[in-house]
């Protein structure tokens, strides 16, 4: 009997990323208020789109659809109304009194770390970032009339420790006993249970209407306006509050007016909201500029086919360069290269878009192996903007340089990899050589034929590969949707199925990783990726992934018949000491700790917690500074941001090591000579570990947790979202520094286990 494998561990469990949601109780009577609340939230916080839990006791299908039209991440959950009938109440027969208790069901939510409740008679007028960043306690605004001891329950910011059976039991006990202010309903129960033990928020976050009696204007500082009392704006309102109700009517909009207002709102837009509202707006208006903005949001999220479909559905005037450039970007990302060229050539006519358009034309030419054309396009782009980095790098990449003489084809292995440019990511720079070392001490052109993963694998490339002894694919996290996107495979190797099937030499997939971030998916291109992945596994003589987490993820995408082909092969950087000829451990180490942080896809890495991460890191750096010199090690240019931010926000100055400029020997030497590396990038952990150096991983991506699990040292990782990150990081680092010889010995012992796997796989590969 076959057993179904357990599903892969959810990414947020591995990264510790906080799950945040809004919540409201909604019924048909308060639906108009809730719809207005949703519109106000989107217009006042256009960059915020958390899940929205809609508690209800029965909504009509049409009402559900109206809510879904306003919020793409609405999550409907039915309240157990009978549960609250057991509570003692002041008026058991009043249906409004009965429903007032239903919001307490929010404390039964178990799948979020932070829940923010909003009454449906509220509107949002300003930024709620402070609430989203709260990490502790149960927060609320004190009641207007009752001083600081009692809270107003219209807005609650609830952390996980209150979303528990124990706290629900306290609520139930108080509700059933009647030992609370009965006429205050849910609010009375919470005040009785908490007895003043809550985090006090400024009144601007729950500014009650009664403060405006006499038709006073709403203060500019108000973030949330709460229409307390019997008379609601959608029911005709109440005399003496005209200016407040005018603010409510500002958000009582038709769908068309609301969508247009959202697109016109200042500030960065959240992908989900921009796509949700913008798509409807484009379908209604066929406006090319709106279509461009929505398509750009799709592209930023790796949704290239969706971008091409939407922008391709509208008529773009010839002289509107930006939409042509974005459409060209989308089309090249799904491998519709000729169509992309036409759009990008149109975009070169406008000076403000020409440099970017030329860089994409250069990229298309390079993908097709035409270095001369790529260089010309990059030159044209630099003529428009001499500072354009993509064009400058392409010119360097395609400079005339004699190709190294290759050995005889029958002595070579072909090697598909991501070959990093100058000033590129240090980890990716080291990877190809590390993979080759696992097969042969000679890593040069005499024994290896390089095939850049991002270039189109065409008939000529196929012929060259089939003339070699075999094909090695790896290493690196090649299974990711938004690095070098293409429509041929859906992952980093730009190989059409028909050519993959015609490779007739042994195919060895070696130490590849499944690198999708927490919150990242393959979207519309998933089917293309799944087909290509299956064909690759079927074709491979050896299919090794670099961690068991990737194995779980990939097996879940394959039929059961292929599961056993997916094997564990550690990243060769983790066994560097065993691979590098003549390796010698340093006799002495520098009294330094190297700190690395990563900023690509920072929203997926940090969520709402970047300020928390930075402050906690500053605390740890100050503590460690008494033991060793802390330096910033930058794998890529963007990694230097941690040094800038620590100095600007916390007055801490760190020297920066520009590892993106280093050669491979210098990378290894730098990591071998330090005492400890604290790294956020995968290879800021794996490379120093492979050099025998103790590591602590700042986990913002599942792959970090995967690696630490494989070496049975999960305690060497700390989530960037950890509430006590600074103290825990300082404590663990101090432990490794205080008994450094033991820490190094532990690294060596863990490495030996990975080397055993690598040696066993090498013995098997000799027979292929």
UniProtKB/TrEMBL annotation:
Pfam families per record: Glyco_transf_8 (PF01501), PS_pyruv_trans (PF04230)
UniProt xrefs under Gene3D superfamilies: Spore Coat Polysaccharide Biosynthesis Protein SpsA, Chain A
Domain of life: Bacteria
SUPFAM superfamilies per the UniProt record, alphabetical: Nucleotide-diphospho-sugar transferases (SSF53448), TPR-like (SSF48452)
InterPro entries from the UniProt entry: Glyco_trans_8, GNT1/Glycosyltrans_8, Nucleotide-diphossugar_trans, Polysacch_pyruvyl_Trfase, TPR-like_helical_dom_sf
Domain Polysaccharide pyruvyl transferase stretches: 458-699
Name of the protein described by the UniProt record: Glycosyltransferase
């Amino acid at each position: 009997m076959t057993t179904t494998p357990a599903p892969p561990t959810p990414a947020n469990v591995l990264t510790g990323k906080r799950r945040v949601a809004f919540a409201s109780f909604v019924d048909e009577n308060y639906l108009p208020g809730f719809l207005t609340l949703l519109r106000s939230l989107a217009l006042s916080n256009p960059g915020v789109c958390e899940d929205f839990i809609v508690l209800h006791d029965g909504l009509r299908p049409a009402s559900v659809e109206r809510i879904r039209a306003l919020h793409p991440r609405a999550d409907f959950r039915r309240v157990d109304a009978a549960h609250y009938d057991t509570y003692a109440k002041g008026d058991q027969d009043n249906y409004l009194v009965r429903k007032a208790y239903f919001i307490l069901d929010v404390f039964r939510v178990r799948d979020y770390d932070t829940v923010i409740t909003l009454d449906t008679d509220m509107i949002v007028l300003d930024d709620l970032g402070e609430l989203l960043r709260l990490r502790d306690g149960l927060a609320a605004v004190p009641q207007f009339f009752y001083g600081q001891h009692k809270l107003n329950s219209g807005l609650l910011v609830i952390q996980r420790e209150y979303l528990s059976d124990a706290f629900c039991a306290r609520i139930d006990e108080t509700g059933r006993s009647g030992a609370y202010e009965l006429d205050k309903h849910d609010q009375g129960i919470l005040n009785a249970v908490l007895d003043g033990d809550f985090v006090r928020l400024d009144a601007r976050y729950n500014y009650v209407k009664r403060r405006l009696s006499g038709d006073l204007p709403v203060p500019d500082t108000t973030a949330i306006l709460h229409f307390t009392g019997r008379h609601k704006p959608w029911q005709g309102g109440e005399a003496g509050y005209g200016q407040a109700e005018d603010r409510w009517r500002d958000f009582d909009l038709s769908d068309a007016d609301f969508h247009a207002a959202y697109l016109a709102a200042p500030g960065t837009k959240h992908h989900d909201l921009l796509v949700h509202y913008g798509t409807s707006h484009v379908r209604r208006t066929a406006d090319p500029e709106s279509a461009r903005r929505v398509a750009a949001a799709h592209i930023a999220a790796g949704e290239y086919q969706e971008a091409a479909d939407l922008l391709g559905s509208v008529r773009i005037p010839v002289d509107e360069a930006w939409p042509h450039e974005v459409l060209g970007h989308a089309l090249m990302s799904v491998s519709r290269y000729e169509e992309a060229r036409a759009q990008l050539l149109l975009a070169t006519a406008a000076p403000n878009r020409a440099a970017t358009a030329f860089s994409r034309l250069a990229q298309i030419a390079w993908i097709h192996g035409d270095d001369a054309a790529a260089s010309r396009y990059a030159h044209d782009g630099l003529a428009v903007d001499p500072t354009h980095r993509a064009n400058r790098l392409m010119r360097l990449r395609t400079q005339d340089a004699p190709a190294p003489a290759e050995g005889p084809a029958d002595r070579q292995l072909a090697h598909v990899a991501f070959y990093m440019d100058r000033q590129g990511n240090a980890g990716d720079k080291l990877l190809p050589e590390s993979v080759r070392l696992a097969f042969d001490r000679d890593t040069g052109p005499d024994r290896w034929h390089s095939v850049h993963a991002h270039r189109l694998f065409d008939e000529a490339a196929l012929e060259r590969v089939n003339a070699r002894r075999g094909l090695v694919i790896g290493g690196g996290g090649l299974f990711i949707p938004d690095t070098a996107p293409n429509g041929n495979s859906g992952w980093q190797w730009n190989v059409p199925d028909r050519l993959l099937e015609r490779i007739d030499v042994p195919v060895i997939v070696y130490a590849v990783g499944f690198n999708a971030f927490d919150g990242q998916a393959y979207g519309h291109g998933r089917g293309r990726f799944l087909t290509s992945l299956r064909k690759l596994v079927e074709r491979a003589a050896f299919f090794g992934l670099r961690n068991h987490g990737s194995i779980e993820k990939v097996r879940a995408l394959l039929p059961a018949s292929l599961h056993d082909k997916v094997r564990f092969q550690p990243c060769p950087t983790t066994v560097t000491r065993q691979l590098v000829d003549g390796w010698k451990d340093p006799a002495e180490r520098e009294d330094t700790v190297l700190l690395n942080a990563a900023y690509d896809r920072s929203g997926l890495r940090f969520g709402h917690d970047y300020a928390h991460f930075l402050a906690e890191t500053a605390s740890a750096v100050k503590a460690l500074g008494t033991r060793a010199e802390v330096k910033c090690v930058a794998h890529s240019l963007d990694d230097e941001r941690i040094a800038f931010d620590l100095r600007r926000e916390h007055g801490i100055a760190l020297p920066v090591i520009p590892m993106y400029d280093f050669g491979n020997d210098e990378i290894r030497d730098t990591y071998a000579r330090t005492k400890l590396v604290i790294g956020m990038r995968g290879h800021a952990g794996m490379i120093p570990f492979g050099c025998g150096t103790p590591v602590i991983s700042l986990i913002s991506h599942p792959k970090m947790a995967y690696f630490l699990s494989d070496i049975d040292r999960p305690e060497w990782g700390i989530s960037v979202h950890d509430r006590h990150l600074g103290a825990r990081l300082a404590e663990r680092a101090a432990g490794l520094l205080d008994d450094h010889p033991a820490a190094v010995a532990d690294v060596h012992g863990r490495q030996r286990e990975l080397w055993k796997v690598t040696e066993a796989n090498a013995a098997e590969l000799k027979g292929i």
